[in-house]
């Protein structure tokens, strides 16, 4: 048994929320000026004669500990905000962890995005060098496998054309071709196969399989459970920053699918008692109301209310709530924000409710997921990911009894048809 | 033997991986080539602008400060006087601007890939060097023209120091730029102040006036602390034989440069570890 190539020991990343801080020089000057005149600077920032509460923390990754042996292909599974991308960012050294440590033995290549380092004005040939070097290759290495890259990408004819003239498909193919030829021991990949056509995706997966079989180590994030199952032998499931399962990929996927429905309640979210009482304002509860009653389901084309109950240590400052609705494939469909229709926001009280009515909800029947956020003076202070699930039952949106086929659209829009001769 | 990468929360001000920097030196080549070839692939006006800009600025300065305000130019032909100042000032502000916006201008790359962040400000110094070469050629041509017309310009031994002056300019500009770059992570509104700070810097450097024309002794001492002052005065003395450059001025300029560079590098070193979180 050889030594692990990746060793993670209690790796954690915390972000500070509650941006009521002196983030601009102008604020800093105001703060100092208020102090010089003997006033309480806190008042300037909406705090009522009391010390500034410590900012809330968002724990993106919580003491992740695991080892990866050479030649292993590991899939990272979890819903949005579970910490997968944070983990890859830490391992690829884009940012430092808040605590904990990790050891990586060997050269690392990270592919968190397709086409990093590409410049639209440069030709395909030049961009192969730009991107290859940025991904960690030496100039000589790029030169050595240049022909191979061009062949894999299938854009030979346009290799001396600026990439801004490429179709998006060609662009993605060229970009991935560069990354696929990285000669690194450890490859970190984040959701890059979501782009490109089906045929090219198969080609990429095949290439990655060969990479994995050649004894190199892959850490792979994807929402596509099928490709994770195909490519990886081991799966790590993350939930709210913690590793909740680590084992054979089949087990990991089913664990994830189970937790998925269990973890999130239907139609209502309640903050746990210890949650975010350290921020200036926080979300206590969120629920869905249909026909005036809290509910886990509503009907397409009928009015729906989303209600957020908050608590706050501030008073009088403007609060803005926002909601985002996702479908069950994690695709964001709607962004609802108080700031768009009510820019003045709500005046903060120690406790209050903000209600958002969606008249005739324009979504097709299906399962949807809600995210919510609360802003103070435009700065995010509280954020709930995957607050709850809710169902939309089929309804009579157009009043005609007819609805489009669900494969064709996810939205329903008011429309008026006229016959003109 | 494979190298072990140790990921942890780095603390303190120091800690600097020289080997990593050397191993990734191709990134410098890449950043420089990328910037320059993208520039010269744009319209004809792209590269042409780099020649026109100092010329137009010199013409404007000659008219306004030479003919209207009649600021003395140490006996140097005004056109040559302003052009020489502008050529060095341009290099300084170009490097400074590039370094100061290292994080914001390249944020799309920096959030997606890791490479030693130092290469971004350093690449600015190299890219601007190419522009400087073009500008310097321009200056040399006008210099020959004025000398042939019998203007009183005599090259002195100070001319040999121009490569060193350039190095000092790069160091000072990097120092100031890294300082601003690191500060921008905490104070985001600083980036709006940057163009103004650069503009201010132009008038605090002897571009449109010679140091000898500054009447007040204390003011002159203050201006001598500006590292660009010693560079421009020494360069002018090198090509024309005129100027206030002397050992004291050079020493103070160098000292300020080194302090600025050290301070900027320390702050940048700290800021680069987690600045991505604030982008």
Give the amount of beta strand of chain A, in percent: 25-35%
Which class of secondary structure composition applies to the elements of chain B? Answer: mainly alpha
Largest sheet of chain A: 6 strands, mixed
Number of strands of chain B: 1
| Count of helical regions of chain B | 12
- How far apart are the first and last residues' alpha carbons of chain A, in Å? 81 Å
| Quaternary structure state of the chains depicted | heterodimer
What's the CATH first level of the largest domain in chain A?
A: Alpha Beta
Question: What is the residue-mean pLDDT of chain B, rounded to a whole number?
Answer: 89
Measured as a percent range, the helix fraction of chain B is 55-70%
* Model regions low in confidence, pLDDT < 50 over at least 5 residues of chain B: none
Spatially, the strands of the biggest sheet of chain A line up as: 5-6-7-3-8-9
Please give the domain count of chain A: 2
Give the chain pair forming the largest contact, with residue counts: A-B, 48 and 38 residues
Gist?
Chain A has 421 residues and is an alpha+beta fold. Chain A is built from eleven helices and 20 strands.
What does this structure look like?
The complex is a heterodimer of chains A (421) and B (279). Chain A contains 11 helices and 20 strands. Chain A starts with 5 loop residues before the first strand and ends in a 28-residue tail after the last strand. Chain A folds into 2 domains: 60-262, P-loop containing nucleotide triphosphate hydrolases (Rossmann fold, 3-Layer(aba) Sandwich), CATH 3.40.50.300; 268-393, abc- transporter (atp binding component) like domain (Coagulation Factor XIII, Chain A, domain 1, Distorted Sandwich), CATH 2.70.50. Chain A has helices at 25-36, 41-44, 84-91, 124-134, 139-144, 146-153, 168-180, 198-213, 225-231, 249-263, 338-341; strands at residues 6-16, 57-68, 73-77, 99-105, 108-111, 186-190, 217-221, 234-239, 242-248, 268-270, 281-290, 293-294, 297-299, 304-312, 318-327, 332-337, 346-347, 351-358, 366-376, 379-393. Chain A is of the alpha+beta class. In chain A, 40% of the residues are buried. By secondary structure, chain B is mainly α. Chain B has one domain. Helices cover 70% and strands 2% of the residues of chain B. Chain B is built from 12 helices and 1 strand. Chain B is globular. The interface between A and B is large, with 48 and 38 residues.
């Amino acid at each position: 048994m050889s030594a692990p190539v990746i060793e993670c020991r209690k790796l954690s990343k915390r972000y500070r929320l509650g941006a009521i801080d002196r983030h601009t020089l102008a604020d800093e000057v105001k703060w100092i000026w208020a102090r010089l005149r003997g006033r309480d600077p806190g008042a300037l920032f909406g705090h009522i004669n009391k010390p500034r509460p410590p900012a809330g923390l968002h724990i993106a990754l919580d003491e992740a500990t695991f080892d990866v042996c050479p030649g292993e292909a590991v899939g990272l599974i979890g819903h949005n905000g579970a910490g997968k991308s944070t983990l890859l960012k830490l391992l690829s050294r884009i940012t430092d962890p808040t605590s904990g440590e990790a050891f990586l033995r060997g050269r690392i290549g990270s592919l968190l995005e397709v086409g990093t380092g590409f410049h639209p004005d440069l030709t395909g040939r030049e961009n192969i060098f730009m991107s290859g070097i940025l991904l960690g290759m030496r100039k000589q290495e790029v030169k050595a496998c240049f022909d191979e890259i061009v062949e894999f990408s299938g854009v030979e004819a346009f290799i001396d054309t600026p990439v801004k003239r490429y179709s998006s498909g060609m662009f993605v193919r060229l970009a991935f071709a560069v990354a696929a030829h990285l000669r690194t021991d450890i490859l970190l990949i984040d959701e890059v196969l979501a782009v490109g056509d089906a045929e090219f995706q198969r080609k990429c997966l095949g290439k990655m399989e060969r990479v994995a079989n050649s004894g190199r180590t892959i850490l792979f994030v994807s929402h596509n459970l099928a490709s994770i199952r195909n490519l990886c032998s081991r799966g790590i499931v993350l939930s709210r920053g913690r590793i909740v399962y680590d084992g054979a990929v089949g087990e990991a996927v089913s664990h994830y699918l189970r937790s998925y429905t269990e973890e999130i309640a239907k139609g209502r979210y309640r903050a746990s008692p210890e949650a975010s009482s350290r921020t200036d304002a926080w979300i206590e509860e969120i629920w869905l109301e249909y026909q005036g009653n809290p509910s886990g389901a509503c009907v397409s084309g009928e009015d729906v209310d989303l209600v957020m109950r908050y608590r706050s240590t501030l008073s009088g400052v403007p609060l803005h709530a926002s909601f985002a609705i996702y479908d069950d494939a994690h695709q964001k469909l709607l962004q609802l924000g108080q700031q768009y229709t009510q820019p003045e926001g709500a005046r903060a009280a120690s406790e209050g409710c903000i209600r958002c009515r969606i008249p005739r909800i324009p979504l097709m029947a299906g399962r949807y997921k809600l995210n919510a956020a609360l802003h103070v003076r435009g700065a995010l202070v509280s954020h709930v990911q995957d607050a709850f699930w809710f169902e939309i039952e089929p309804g009579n949106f157009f009043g005609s009894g007819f609805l489009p086929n669900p494969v064709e659209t996810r939205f329903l829009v008011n429309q008026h048809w006229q016959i003109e001769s | 033997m494979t190298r072990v990468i140790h990921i942890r929360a780095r603390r303190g001000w120091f800690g600097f991986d020289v080997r990593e920097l050397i191993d990734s030196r191709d990134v410098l080549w890449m950043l420089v080539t990328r910037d320059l070839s993208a520039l010269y692939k744009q319209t004809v006006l792209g590269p042409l602008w780099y020649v026109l800009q100092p010329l137009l600025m010199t013409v404007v300065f000659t008219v306004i400060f030479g003919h209207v305000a009649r600021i003395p130019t140490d006996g140097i032909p005004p056109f040559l006087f302003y052009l020489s100042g502008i050529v060095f000032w341009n290099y300084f502000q170009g490097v400074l601007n590039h370094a100061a916006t290292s994080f914001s201008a390249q944020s799309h790359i920096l959030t997606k890939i890791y490479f030693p962040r130092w290469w971004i400000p350093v690449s600015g110094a190299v890219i601007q060097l190419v522009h400087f070469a073009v500008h310097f050629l321009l200056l040399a041509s006008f210099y020959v023209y004025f000398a042939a017309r019998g203007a009183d310009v005599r090259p002195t031994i100070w001319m040999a120091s121009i490569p060193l002056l350039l190095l000092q300019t790069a160091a000072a500009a990097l120092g100031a730029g890294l300082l601003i770059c690191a500060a921008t992570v905490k104070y985001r509104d600083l980036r709006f102040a940057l163009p103004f700070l650069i503009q201010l810097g132009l008038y605090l450097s002897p571009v449109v006036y010679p140091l000898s024309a500054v009447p007040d002794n204390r003011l002159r001492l203050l201006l001598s602390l500006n590292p660009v002052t010693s560079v421009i005065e020494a360069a002018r003395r090198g090509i024309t034989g005129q100027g206030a450059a002397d050992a004291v001025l050079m020493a103070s300029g160098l000292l300020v440069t080194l302090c600025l560079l050290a301070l900027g590098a320390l702050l940048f070193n700290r800021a680069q570890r987690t600045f991505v979180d604030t982008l």
